[in-house]
Design brief:
This protein has 687 residues and is mainly alpha-helical. The chain folds into 3 domains: 215 residues, Serine Threonine Protein Phosphatase 5, Tetratricopeptide repeat (Alpha Horseshoe); 100 residues, Tetratricopeptide repeat domain (Serine Threonine Protein Phosphatase 5, Tetratricopeptide repeat, Alpha Horseshoe), CATH 1.25.40; 191 residues, Rossmann fold, CATH 3.40.50. Helices cover 63% and strands 3% of the residues. It contains 35 helices and 5 strands. The chain has a 5-stranded parallel sheet with strand order 2-3-1-4-5, with helices on both faces. α1 packs parallel to α3. The longest helix has 20 residues. It is globular and about 100 Å long. It starts with a helix and ends in a 6-residue tail after the last helix.
Length: 687
């Protein structure tokens, strides 16, 4: 009977196995193995509690049977009861010190909780029971991978697969090792072999789909999800959305539409689904159909902000938008989102009275709402600038939130600037910078340049072009970055939460290269090692750097000869003023205007020397006349790179016009005195 049950389970004929096991347990109620295999069949049918009850009965009948403890451990692992599984494995080992599977499973549990030493210990004990067993490589390879030795991990599991080429656990290990090395194609093939061996393992279809998508085959990745979408147990709204996004990425908008509709039916307020649907409706010219579908959804989910956003986005008639906005406000009267939309419409058409009313309602809901405060101040400033400034000062007296204080201090400075009170403007911006300094990083150190630079290495003909972009605070470098964002090669991840931790990110490289504790070869090697995770392993790259120091030439000249530097500058005195008033894309703290001026002077002197003495291939972009004009920004980039990058829709808000620093010659006399020499060196007038 046992063999028949095992054979049925292997065929995934669970009902057949369950019938046979129940008959066996009923006919021989004192047979522990009958209850053990009934538990196995119940587990495979998803009846976890009944399986536990049956296995407990088996253990009561044969408490000294180590194999029953192993079965219990397996059942507990399936139910995520890992501590109980550990106890069962320990019991199995005590009952039978030669229980190979107990040691192996215990090692795998230790691996799962990150206890690598314990995993190795238990694996060694398993090796004493069965030396050379292929299963030993599963744990050893995973331990090696966790410790960063991917080549050894792959070597171990590959050798074991020579002995047991169809072992599912070994194949799993090999697949995850390939994934750890970002060898997506190899990992895909390995997991396809697992599916061939275990056709009922549907969960792997999702993993294979992800691996296929990573290789740039979204349509095939979507095909891989079909078995999961056909099963009501796995066809979640998130999976429908994922499949739809893959079809959309593959340019298959018609196939994406029903998938995304199913996703919306399961979760009508999902923002990503709605954004994709709006895109599909527009591509297929089905805006009317989309509006009807959204109206139907709003009839039952009027409090879903994402639905309203999609509805107003899809509306083509501007005369309908005010009515939509009013409906949205009525449906969500305690939300700021519809009022923000209403305010933007009223500002666009110049309806000052209604816009003032909307701003007032926003402030009633959210007293520190920035958009509403700014609208109110602009309205007041048009009539009486002094009253607007007074309102800012009144808000400041009762504002404790650091972010809101920074916003108001910035407005206060701008108000004083418009009034011509430069000393008061500097005082407000200084206070703002002191608040910001609490959440910003210190200024970079300045490295020591050597007496002689290392020679340039010869560039390989097949090497990708590397362009480093850098501009000091206040230079307007973010406007140039906005142009470069149109290219696939541009990377701005150094300014986000997942910045690469290489030598171009950490200040340690400046000191290490200066004193010789870090070699240039190491810096470049770490930079290259981070490229695959940044999606730039085989591409030309524009790498936007948060800081620059000429000491990096110790790494770039001999080890990255295919690189060049794009330097963004403007009049250094305008840089300092813009940094003070508007902050910077680089999250540097400004300890004081004087310290900031000294940093700018040192940094700009370095790049001036680099350009003058041709120490490194470099292009200089001057942003003095760029302002917030996208066309001017694109022209500046294309002129420097001899490229044809299109202008973006926006490069950011307007700040001060060139030469505005001259209004601050008294308020910032000492900092400007520090900057004047390097300004003239860069070609700007002394005054």
């Amino acid at each position: 009977m046992q063999d028949k049950i095992i054979e049925a389970l292997r065929r995934n004929a669970v009902e057949e196995a369950l019938t046979q096991a129940r008959e066996w347990a009923a006919s021989q109620p004192a047979d522990a193995q009958a209850h053990r295999w009934l538990a196995q069949a119940l587990q495979q049918s998803g009846e976890h509690a009944a399986a536990m009850e049956s296995l407990d009965r088996a253990i009561d009948l044969a408490p000294e049977d180590a194999s029953l403890q192993m079965a219990l451990a397996s059942l507990l692992i399936g139910g995520r009861q890992l501590e109980g599984a550990r106890s069962a494995l320990t019991k199995a080992s005590e009952l039978n010190p030669n229980q190979f599977d107990a040691y192996i499973m215990g090692a795998q549990l230790a691996l799962g909780r990150g206890d690598l030493d314990e995993a190795e210990r238990l694996n060694r004990m398993a090796g004493r029971v069965a030396p050379g067993h292929p299963q030993l490589a599963v744990v050893d390879s995973m331990v090696a991978l966790r410790r960063g030795d991917a080549p050894r991990a792959l070597q171990l599991v590959s050798a074991a697969l020579q002995q047991a080429p169809d072992d599912s656990q070994l194949l799993y290990a090999a697949g995850f090792i390939y994934m750890g090395n970002q060898h997506w194609a190899f990992a895909e093939q390995i997991f396809r072999r697992v599916v061939e061996n275990v056709p009922g393992n549907k969960k792997l279809h999702g993993l294979i789909s992800d691996l296929v998508a990573r290789q740039g085959r979204p349509a095939e990745a979507a095909d891989q999800l079909i078995p999961l979408l056909d099963d009501p147990q796995t066809a979640t709204a998130a999976l429908w959305r994922h499949a739809g996004l893959l079809r959309l990425s593959a340019g298959q908008a018609e196939q994406a539409l029903p998938l995304l509709r199913n996703a919306l039916a399961g979760k009508p307020d999902d923002e990503r689904t709605l954004q994709a649907l709006v895109q599909v409706w527009r591509q297929l010219g089905l805006e009317d159909n989309g509006r009807d579908m959204l109206e139907a959804a709003l009839a039952t989910s009027s409090g879903a902000a994402a639905l309203w956003m999609a509805r107003v986005t899809l509306e083509q008639d501007p005369d309908v938008l005010p009515t939509l906005a009013a409906r949205w406000v009525a449906a969500m009267p305690q939300s700021v989102l519809p009022l923000e939309f209403m305010l933007s419409l009223q500002q666009r058409v110049g309806d000052a009275v209604e816009a003032d009313a909307s701003a007032a309602r926003l402030l009633a809901l959210e007293p520190s709402h920035r958009g509403a405060r700014l609208h109110l101040l602009n309205a007041m400033a048009a009539q009486d600038p002094a009253s607007a400034l007074g309102q800012v000062e009144e808000w400041l007296r009762s504002e404790d939130d650091p972010a809101n204080r920074c916003f108001l201090l910035g407005l206060s400075g701008l108000g004083h600037d418009r009034a011509g009170d430069t000393n008061a403007a500097i005082a407000a911006w200084t206070d703002m910078q002191q608040v910001l300094a609490q959440v910003r990083v210190p200024l970079p150190p300045i490295g020591s340049s050597p007496a002689h630079w290392p020679a340039f290495a010869e560039r390989a003909g097949t090497a990708s072009r590397v362009t480093f972009l850098w501009g000091p605070p206040g230079s307007g470098v973010e406007r140039i970055a906005a142009v470069l964002e149109a290219t696939n090669e541009f990377r701005a991840d150094r300014f986000g939460p997942n910045a690469p931790q290489d030598g171009f990110q950490t200040y340690a490289a400046i000191e290490g290269l200066s004193d010789g504790s870090i070699t240039g070869e190491q810096v470049v090697a770490h930079w290259r090692a981070a490229l695959p995770a940044r999606g730039a392993a085989d591409l030309d790259i524009f790498d936007w750097l948060p800081w620059w120091d000429n000491v990096l030439l110790l790494a770039l000249r001999p080890h990255l000869p295919e690189s060049r530097l794009l330097i963004v500058v403007r009049d250094p005195r305008d840089m300092l003023l813009e940094w003070m008033a508007f902050g910077t894309a680089t999250p540097f703290a400004m300890p004081s205007a004087q310290a900031a001026a000294e940093y700018l002077a040192n940094a700009l002197d370095q790049v001036a020397s680099l350009v003058e003495f041709e120490w490194f291939p470099a292009r200089v972009i001057r942003t003095d006349a760029v302002g917030n004009d996208p066309q001017a920004a694109a022209a500046a980039v294309n002129g420097a790179l001899q490229a044809g990058i299109p202008a973006p829709a926006s490069v950011g808000p307007a700040y001060f016009s060139p030469g505005h620093w001259r209004q601050y010659t008294q308020a910032l006399a000492e900092p400007f005195a520090v900057l004047s020499p390097v300004a003239m060196r860069l070609g700007y007038p002394a005054d």
